[in-house]
């Protein structure tokens, strides 16, 4: 598993000697099971670029909440693959919501920037 904690994907340490597909935003492309283009390598969080067809109300924002959800889902996908089982896309990728803002309770569900 490859992980990072930055807003800008820091993929440079992983590129040498590997053939990862890289997204336009500089992240390692992952499919809907968090697989990268390199066999048996998963990526989650800020280092990856979601390359699946997203829900109309979800967008990748590279926030800690999404990184945590992606990490949990990547672990679930790795465990399922090890056991020879399949897993469905997690609900976390159906609706974007983020709830922290200087200790105030703020909820931003869906693609809030398109409301109007």
Automatic annotation (TrEMBL):
Its cofactor is FAD. It holds the Pfam family Pyr_redox_2. The keyword Zinc-finger does not apply. Keywords: FAD, Flavoprotein. The keyword DNA-binding does not apply. GO terms for molecular function: oxidoreductase activity. This is Pyridine nucleotide-disulfide oxidoreductase domain-containing protein 1 isoform X1. Residues 8-71 form the FAD/NAD(P)-binding domain. The gene is LOC109268718. Coiled coil: none annotated. InterPro entries: FAD-bd_OxRdtase, FAD/NAD-bd_sf, FAD/NAD-binding_dom.
